[in-house]
Design brief:
By secondary structure, the chain is α/β, with parallel strands linked by helices. The chain is 30% helix and 17% strand. The chain contains 15 helices and 21 strands. The protein has helices at residues 18-29, 46-49, 70-75, 85-98, 132-136, 209-218, 245-263, 283-296, 312-329, 333-338, 407-410, 421-424, 458-478, 488-503, 533-545, and strands at residues 9-14, 34-37, 105-106, 109-117, 122-129, 153-161, 183-186, 201-205, 224-229, 235-237, 352-354, 366-370, 376-380, 383-386, 389-392, 395-398, 413-416, 419-420, 443-445, 484-486, 551-553. Strands 1, 2, 3, 4, 5, 6, 17, 18 and 19 form a 9-stranded mixed beta sheet that branches. A 5-stranded parallel beta sheet has the order 7-16-8-9-12, with no helix packed on it. The model is unreliable at 133-147 (pLDDT under 50). Bound molecules: 3-acetylpyridine adenine dinucleotide.
């Protein structure tokens, strides 16, 4: 049952990815009038856009999936340990069908602005029609074929930003880009019809997770592959494989325990965290532990000991072990050295999970170029120039990352009481619990900055925030409250807590997108809460039980 007919909607949700979909389901179930806007033509968020060859999740799919509905988790079968993008998008579509979500989602609609009206205590939501082509530059279904809610304004009591952490691509501008006569593709909005790279000469700029997966997937089919690497990355093997019926049945039987363990863990998925510092162990014990973790594969590698992210020498032991694996996999020792990260602590930049990445450089037609010493200078009509050398290629792939964590929020023109959110966050995000920002009442963020978000299994963080927001709005309705705001002093403390926790670790030492270091001019602030998912959940539940400490209601 709805509470308020003076607005178009009780709640507007921005984004129809995994966060927005679940938020819609929960709020609708609780009787709120809800509308979701998304610029894409379909649900799925990041898994809608990132269709590049080899795109695949880096957290096991039996963990990277919704836990909120027992029937859903029992009926869905993951084919592989780490599902590929088409399967994850199919899962998102299945969820949308199963819970009849699409009827409350306006696709092809971009939220341009949000303005808070203190008199009416409502948000005005400004939207515009978004052709898929015009949103992120990706081709897709033409806008006129799709019902949308663009070019209009709407009012809502609450707005939930479910805009994702890695959804605004960073597009470096190289001189001469317009001169390039070949095909230019971004991994972040890969053409929906695919790109045939068979027998073509391809350049890839960027060697983060997207670049590494793309390079591995396309190497064999290209005639020549020129990779421009500015910073090498640590990559842990995925050991991806098809799941057997027995494995799937065992997971389904144990889902309750698996989900509980995920929620009780630091990363939001079971990583079998070590309980002692590396310094307590002999070299043989350390090697045995790292061998076992390497054989298991995945991001749990860095959780072997408790001091990996606080003690530079312990971190270096894990880093050197990972470099040794590169040397074992790459035939040319000089290439192996160029592929070996040395300029930042392991895991202070997001580690990658790979399937045969380093071996690609043993192929004679794959060439690695050091873009730190020989940067890409310009594009030309026939390719690009780097370090004074011209490279002729048919296709250039940009795998150059995202304006992470804040980009998708600050690109919306959000104002309240004469204050703009983008201005407020000019020197870094300021939030209370990553859920609200002072001065912007009734505006909630799912996996916002200063919450664990990207340092965790996103599905666990999403479900926690969505459930918390649903509880908050339901409680407010029961108590006849219509306005909630973060207290400025609570926000100041939370920002300090975040800085203190990150500062006590090695995390800020990497020039990472966690720090905003990949975006020219962006303030360098460590943006996610680095104290672990379980700690964060405990803190939020504690403040909530303490009469919603840090929030002000009216
Ligand atoms: O982006 P990135 P991504 N000239 O920022 C380089 C998630 N994800 O899309 O490191 C030359 O990591 C840049 O160099 P540097 C995951 O959380 C997950 O790959 O800044 N190079 C870097 O090498 C991941 O961490 C999955 O020196 C330039 C690359 O481009 C996050 O998304 C898959 C440049 C960007 O790497 C982002 O990953 C994909 C320039 N001007 C993504 N500008 C999985 O689940 C940038 N670079 C597996």
């Amino acid at each position: 049952m709805s509470t308020d007919c003076s607005t178009d909607y009780d709640v507007v949700i921005v984004g129809a990815g995994f966060a927005g979909m679940y938020q819609l389901h929960r709020l609708r179930e609780a009787g709120f009038r809800v509308r979701v806007f998304d610029a894409a033509t379909e649900v799925g968020g990041t898994w809608y856009w990132n269709r590049y060859p080899g795109a695949r999740v880096d957290i096991e799919s039996t963990h990277y999936s919704y836990s909120f509905d027992e029937e859903l988790q029992q009926e869905w079968d993951w084919s592989e340990r780490y599902a590929a993008q088409p399967e994850i998008l199919a899962y998102a579509r299945h969820v949308a069908d199963r819970f009849d979500l699409r009827r409350d989602i306006a696709f092809s609609t971009r939220v341009e602005g949000l303005d808070w009206d203190e008199t009416t205590q409502t948000w005005t939501v400004r939207t515009s029609p978004a052709t898929a082509q015009g949103v992120q530059g990706a081709p897709g279904a033409p806008a006129e074929e799709i019902p949308h809610g663009g070019g209009q304004t709407w009012t809502a009591r609450f707005v939930v930003l479910a805009t994702g952490c890695l959804s605004v691509p960073q597009r470096p501008q190289f001189p001469g880009m317009e001169d390039f006569a070949g095909e230019l593709c971004y991994t972040s909005d890969w053409p929906h019809d695919g790109v045939d790279l068979t027998g073509r000469r391809v350049a890839v700029i960027g060697t983060g997770s997207s670049g590494i997966q793309t390079i591995t997937a396309i190497a064999e089919q290209t005639a020549a592959l020129e990779v421009f690497q500015r910073t090498p990355n640590f990559a842990i093997p995925a050991h991806n494989r098809t799941l057997t019926d027995e494995e799937r049945a065992a997971v389904k039987r144990d889902y309750a325990q698996i989900r509980a363990a995920d929620r009780a863990s630091g990363l939001g998925f079971a990583t079998y965290d070590g309980t002692t510092p590396l310094t307590d162990h002999s070299a043989e014990e350390v090697e045995r532990e790292l061998d076992a973790r390497w054989a298991r594969g995945g991001l749990g590698y860095s959780r072997a000991f408790t001091d990996v992210m606080t003690n530079a020498e312990s971190n270096e032991v894990l880093a050197e072990y990972a470099r040794e694996q590169i040397r074992a996999r790459v035939d040319d020792p000089e290439l192996a050295e160029l592929l070996s990260p040395r300029s930042y602590p392991l895991a202070s930049k997001r580690m990658c999970v790979d399937t045969g990445y380093f071996e690609v450089y043993n192929l004679p037609h794959v060439h690695l170029h050091d873009a730190s010493t020989h940067p890409v200078e310009r594009f030309t009509e026939t390719g690009l120039r780097a370090g004074g050398e011209d490279f002729e290629v048919d296709v250039i792939v940009l795998a150059t990352g995202f304006d992470a964590m804040t980009g998708a929020i600050t690109q919306i023109d959000i104002t309240a009481g004469g204050l703009s959110l983008a201005q407020k966050w000019e020197h870094g995000p300021r939030t209370y619990l990553g859920l609200m920002t002072a001065g912007f009442p009734n505006l909630l963020t799912v996996t916002g900055p200063q919450s664990p978000s990207v340092l965790t299994n996103m599905l666990v963080s999403i479900e926690f925030h969505v459930d918390w927001i649903t509880r908050l709005l339901t409680t407010m309705r029961e108590r006849g409250l219509t306005r909630v705001e973060a207290r400025p002093e609570a926000e100041d403390d939370w920002v300090q807590v975040n800085n203190d926790i990150a500062g006590a670790s090695l995390m800020p030492q990497g020039a990472s997108w966690y720090m905003g270091a990949n975006i020219p001019g962006k303030e360098r602030v460590f943006m996610p809460f680095a104290g672990g998912s379980h700690t964060y959940i405990g803190l939020v539940e504690g403040f909530t039980a303490a009469n919603h400490h840090g929030f002000r209601f009216a």
